[in-house]
Amino acid sequence: MSFLSATLNRVKPSPTIAMSTKAGELKAAGQDVISLSAGEPDFDTPQNIKDAAVAAIAAGKTKYTAPDGIIELKEAICAKFKRDNDLAYTPAQISVGTGGKQILYNALMATLNEGDEVVIPAPYWVSYPDMVLLAGGTPVVAEASIQTGFKLTPDQLEAAITDKTKWLIFNSPSNPTGAGYSWEELKALTDVLMRHPHVWIMSDDMYEHLTFGDFEFCSPAQVEPALYDRTLTVNGVSKAYAMTGWRIGYAGGPTELISAMRKVQSQSTSNPCSISQWAAVEALNGTQDYIEDNKALFQRRRDLVVGLLNDAQGIACPTPDGAFYVYPSIADCIGKTSAQGTKITDDEAFATALLEETGIAVVFGAAFGMSPNFRISYATSDAELTDACTRIQQFCAGLT
Q: Which GO molecular function annotations are given, in alphabetical order (predicted)?
C-alpha cells in the first residue's frame, strides 16, 4: 500500500513553477538566462502600502484574525466592488484568503462532490483543472481557438454544459492569453448560463486593472444581475498592486457559499497574514493613481513583444486585451529541427530547446490546455524583452 494519497495521482506539479525553477537553476550555474515564465510584476509594491504594513507591525496588529479576514479589509473590499464593478456586497458575503488561488480552491472544496463537472475554457490557467481534480470533481475543457481570439463562443459553452455541471470558471483578461471579453461577448455567455440555473459562475477577475486601449473590463454578475446569487467574484491585490508575495486574495458571493468557504479555511490555513491584510486595506482604500501608470508601461511592453515576435519566422502572435502575457502560435515551427539538432515535435520540445540553446525560458502551451503555443510574461524590462525576443527570432531563423 502506498504511503502517499491516491488523490495526488490525479494532479501534476505546476508547469509554470517548474519552468521558472529550471531557468533559475541554469542561471545559478552561470548560464545567460532570461526567464519570461513567471506571472509577476517586476516593480515594487507601492510605498503607501509598505508604510501601512510597517504601521500595522508597530501597532501590534500581529495576532490571529478572523479565519477569513478582518472587518476593515472586508469593508474595503465591499467598497471596491461597488466602486469598480457596481456590485453590492456586505462583509458577510466576503472571503479573504492567502491569495486568489486559495479562494478558488476553498470554493471548489466546499461545493464539489464526486461526479460534479466544472467547465474550464482553454487556454486556461494551469491550476484550474488540478484544483478541480483535488476537490474530487471532473474538469470539462472547452477549447477556445485562436480564430475566436481565444474566447469561448456561446455555442461552445452550451455544448460543454451537462446536468452534472456545477461551475463555469471564467477568466478575463485571461492568463495565459490576455484575451478579454467585451460586454456584448460576455452577455452572450451569460444568456447561455441563464438557461441553466444549476450552473454557478466562478469569475477570476485578477487582471481587472491591467487592460489596454479601448477595452473595458466587465464581470459576469455586473453584466447579468440575475446571476448575482450564483456567482463568486474573485480578485486580489497581487497583480494590480504588485503584491504577489503578500498573498491576499478575496471574493464576494452568496452568504451560504462564503460561510462554507470559511469552514474550509478555518481547518486549513486559518487567517491570512495579519500584516498583509492591513497592507491590502491601504491598497484598496488608498490612492489608485499608479494603476494607470502601470497599465501604460505594460501596454508599451505588450506592443514591443507582439511586434518582435510577429517578425520571427513561424510565429503568429495575437495582440492581447490585458494582463501581461502573450500566447503566440508556433504551428509553422512544428516538425522542424533546431540549429543544435533538436526535433520540434511539439510546443514542449520547442520551449525546452529554446531554453537550452538560447537561455530564454517560456512556458509551453500544453500546460495551458492548447497547443502548439507558448506563453511569455512581459513583466520585465524593455531591454530584457528586446534581448529575449531577438534570441527567439534567431532560434526560429535557425529551424530547418
A: L-aspartate:2-oxoglutarate aminotransferase activity; pyridoxal phosphate binding
Pick the CATH number of 64-285 from 3.40.640.10, 3.40.630.40, 3.10.180.10, 1.20.950.20: 3.40.640.10
* DSSP helix/strand/coil, 50: helix
Task: Enumerate the H helices of the chain as residue ranges.
Answer: 15-28, 47-58, 71-85, 100-111, 127-134, 154-160, 183-194, 220-223, 255-266, 274-285, 289-310, 347-358, 382-397
User: Is 126 in contact with 19 (CB distance < 8 Å)?
Assistant: no
Rounded to 10 deg, the angle between the 347-358 and 382-397 helix axes is 110
pLDDT value for 25: 87
Note the pLDDT tens digit of each residue in 190-232. 999 999 999 999 999 999 999 999 999 999 999 999 999 999 9
State the Cα–Cα distance between residues 268 and 182, nearest whole angstrom: 37
- How is residue 7 annotated by DSSP? G
Please write down the HEC assignment for all residues of 151-191.
Answer: CCCHHHHHHHCCCCEEEEEEECCCCCCCCCCCHHHHHHHHH
> Would you say 379 and 39 are in contact if contact means Cβ atoms under 8 Å apart?
yes
**Where does the pLDDT of residue 23 fall: very low under 50, low under 70, confident under 90, or very high at 90 and above?**
confident
If you ran DSSP here, which 8-state letter would residue 272 be given? P
- Where are the domains positioned within the chain? 6-44+290-394, 64-285
Tell me if residue 249 falls in helix, strand or coil.
Answer: strand
Report the percent of the chain where pLDDT is more than 70: 100
Question: Which residues lie closer than 8 Å to 82 by C-beta, 6 or more apart?
Answer: 88, 89
Q: Domain 6-44+290-394 falls in which CATH fold?
A: Aspartate Aminotransferase, domain 1 (3.90.1150)
- Cross-strand bridge partners of residue 117: 138, 165
- Do 375 and 312 form a contact (C-beta atoms < 8 A)? no
Look up the pTM and report it. Answer: 0.95
- Tell me the CA end-to-end span of the chain in Å, nearest whole number: 50
Q: Does pLDDT of 26 surpass 90? A: no
For 139-175, how does the pLDDT look when each residue is reduced to its tens digit (9 = 90+)?
A: 999 999 999 999 999 999 999 999 999 999 999 999 9
Cβ neighbors of 252 (< 8 A, separation 6 or more) are: 77, 78, 81, 87, 89, 93, 94, 232, 233
